[in-house]
């Protein structure tokens, strides 16, 4: 559908209006809201508020720097704790090895002593004594390692307590910083808060407008290059552009909301925590949303279908008009729109992925020579392949599959033509038109259902069609 040359005029008017509003708020901040200059008393009060605002900003800056320093300290403490844990693991392994070696030496010494008592061999007795000495040394080393492990455990416990204390300090400093920011925001007038919010809202609206223009412009460029057909890479690009616009719009919308709430002194973190609790409360309902999103991601990553494909999903067929992470929108020939949650998609029949096949069955009378009929069909296929328009839609020569069935009153001949995606129906309609005209010229009969009735003896047959 073509659009007029002023299709972006509304967007331009919106930007101009927002710019004028921003300028008016700037003037309102410099004056008292009526366009008149402030009297000395008002100016003194404004100066006092300005000084208080500067002090709050200095406090906020100091609190932020202190918070950053404390966060660095807790990171270093966490690194030390991890180092102690790794060292403890190494010593525990070595201690276990020493313990096993000591037990082995002790067992060997006992065996040699029994042999020495049996054979009265002093050499074996000396070896047994040496092994016992080595076993005791190993046990002493094991005990020393156990002491080291105990010391490291004490260190780890001390650092864990220090980490907990530092975390409490960070929490307290975060609350203090939040309180300062709340005071900072609360000391502002409503118009100043609105003025602080307006640039962020303006940026968000500009981003939304840019995303909209990007989608429309990209689609227009892609479609202008395609000509009579749409390539798979073009449909893929259009689908991804639509997805990027959809995701970008959602992110920008939440950015605008959260920025406005913070500028008016409302902390976002409690709201996010409340959203998490609400998410748990509505978990049974939210699981369907999560399923839709996950399935939508896999549909796009695996390129199961794209915008512009003709598909059948759960008995619903049509052209894919829109697809995002949550839903797929189809439109059939009658213009009816079907919206399908992606989580409900179990299997998909894609009629236009890569290429399409125009599959036709033609019935002729039993009296006709099927070889002659098949030659006529092939000739029409060659004519269409040579056609300036339809030749671009057909990828290969007509493939004759042969006599497919003996029906009640006709011999069924089946053949197919490989076409560009979504062009099979156009090729089939044109082929049927040419085939009917050719059969009429050559006198080849296309049978239609009819019956012959006999009224009994002495009566002639009456044909009913």
What separation lies between the terminal Cα atoms?
47 Å
Number of helices: 10
As laid out across the biggest beta sheet, the strand order is 4-3-2-1-5
Q: In one word, what is the shape?
A: flat
Number of E strands? 10
Unreliable sequence segments: 1-9, 24-39
Question: Averaging pLDDT over every residue, what do you get?
Answer: 77
Compute the gyration radius: what is it? 42 Å
Strand % is 5-15%
* H/E element order: HHHHHHHEEEEEEHHEEHEE
Which structural category do the helix and sheet elements fall into?
alpha+beta
The amount of helix comes to 55-70%
Largest sheet: 5 strands, antiparallel
Provide tags for this entry:
three-stranded antiparallel β-sheet, alpha+beta, Alpha-Beta Plaits, flat, 465 residues
Report on the architecture of this protein.
- Helices cover 66% and strands 12% of the residues.
- It is an alpha+beta fold.
- Among the domains are: 142 residues; 93 residues, Alpha-Beta Plaits (2-Layer Sandwich), CATH 3.30.70.
- Helix 2 runs antiparallel to helix 3 and helix 4 packs antiparallel against helix 5.
Entry summary:
The chain has 465 residues and is α+β, with helices and mostly antiparallel strands. The chain is built from 10 helices and 10 strands.
